[in-house]
Specification:
Blueprint lengths: L2 E19 L2 E15 L4 E5 L13 H16 L8 H6 L7 H19 L3 H5 L5 E3 L2 E3 L5 H14 L3 E5 L6 H10 L4 E5 L9 H5 L9 E2 L8 H9 L4 E3 L6 H10 L4 E4 L7 H13 L4 E3 L6 H10 L23 E2 L8 E3 L9 E2 L1 H7 E7 L1
Parallel strand pairs: 5-6, 6-7, 7-8, 8-9, 9-10, 10-11
Antiparallel strand pairs: 1-2, 1-15, 2-3, 4-13, 12-14
Helix pairs in contact: 1-3
The protein binds 2-succinylbenzoate (OSB) and magnesium ion.
């Protein structure tokens, strides 16, 4: 297969509610959507999960646009590609910029599956008909607000609640959540808000029977996380610190975590995600699929990836309506009783809604 034309679109979509983490809050989501056409006129879709400011990692939608326009699209255009696994090899001369790379790699995977007439899940070797998902809840103004939100999500059927924490919004908050909801699957995500010197503070979370604490320490650390994990019983899950299979191996060998959150964008694509999944399966490390408040396109890729069998914990891939008044795919991603039914149409399995895409597009550029 060959990519004969690639279109980049800069979209701006407004979340239903502001999303707050230990870094701050935002409601307008600006991102890049990538449309790739092959020599037979088929279309594959990819989404960049980079935000408009570099708070989660160093990438932004503007650095992604630059990388795609100046390096990644030229490296792939009109090149014969037998299998999507080749994309990461072609990109090997370009360091890092994983979210930029995964934007176009995801579109190549979608095209590959569509050309074969199979679902993206099948192309990856996944075999679940439905996937179990949870929900990630940002920092709220009051604990009362948080408890009310959780009650609503429990009623909607979500089985696992992830609560964002930061210093000043942590132990007492989790205690109240646990008191009110003694039986839910519950976890906390700190987005790197703590230091190793907070060890005694973080130990207090051990009494709440949390599934895990996600990324408590620095975004580039695996050494201090290993020290922390030895001192607390709550399993540590790494998010920001894991960019590759190699990072995964090193974190496992050091004992830095017991669980890994796989985000396709953070690790540079679906091929690398699969490698991490396979390594973790071999070493009995449960994985789950993280989220980046994606539109339906990125969400669809997450659904397909989660069909791999070592995704044994509910991920952050909630339904479209948790984020958007109107998503850009047909049908939207729907959650019933905590499950998403994996679509059975070829590729990502959801249709891009061109009217909606146009409505949210600020800038568009075609490369051929
Ligand atoms: O609902 C989602 O898509 C996941 C929400 C979430 O937790 C998150 C959202 C944006 C950036 C980082 C994270 C995270 O997992 O740390
Ligand atoms: Mg996280």
């Amino acid at each position: 297969m060959k990519l004969t034309e690639v279109t980049l679109r800069h979209l701006k979509m407004r979340l239903k509610d502001p999303f707050a983490t230990s870094f701050g809050s935002f409601q307008d989501k600006e991102f890049i959507l990538l449309e790739a056409k092959d020599e037979e006129g088929r279309i594959g879709w990819g989404e960049s999960v980079a935000f408009d400011t570099p708070w989660y990692n160093e990438e932004t939608f503007k650095t992604n646009w630059h990388m795609l326009e100046d390096y990644l699209i030229p490296a792939l255009l009109n090149k014969e590609i037998e299998h999507p696994d080749q994309v990461s090899e072609i990109f090997a001369p370009f360091r890092k910029n994983n979210m930029a790379k995964s934007t176009i790699e995801g579109a190549v995977w979608d095209l590959y599956a569509k050309r074969k007439g199979i679902t993206l899940a099948e192309a990856l070797g996944g075999n679940k008909e439905k996937i179990e998902v949870g929900i990630s809840i940002g920092i709220q103004d009051t604990v009362e607000d948080l408890l009310q939100l959780i009650e609503g999500y429990v009623a909607e059927g979500y089985k696992r609640m992830k609560v964002k924490i930061k210093p000043g919004w942590d132990i007492d908050v989790m205690r109240q959540v646990r008191e009110q909801f003694p039986d839910i699957l519950l976890m906390a995500d700190a987005n790197s808000a703590y230091r190793l010197s907070d060890i005694d503070h973080l130990k207090q979370l051990d009494e709440f029977n949390l599934m895990m604490i996600e990324q408590p320490l620095a975004s580039d650390d695996i050494v201090d996380h290993a020290k922390l994990q030895k001192e607390i019983t709550t399993p540590v899950c790494l998010d920001e610190s894991i960019h590759s299979l190699e990072d995964t191996r090193k974190a496992h060998e050091l004992g830095s975590c017991k669980i890994i959150n796989i985000k396709i964008g953070r690790v540079g694509g679906i091929t690398e995600s699969k490698k991490i999944h396979d390594y973790c399966k071999e070493h009995n490390i449960p994985v789950w699929c993280g989220g980046m408040l994606e539109s339906g396109i990125g969400r669809a890729h997450n659904v397909a990836l989660t069909t791999l069998d070592n995704f044994i914990m509910p991920g952050d891939t909630a339904g479209s309506s948790r984020y958007w008044e109107k998503d850009i795919i047909d049908p939207e991603v729907v959650v019933h009783d905590g499950y998403i039914t994996v679509p059975d149409r070829p590729g990502i399995g959801y249709e891009a809604n061109m009217d909606a895409i146009k409505q949210f597009t600020i800038k568009e550029q075609r490369y051929s």
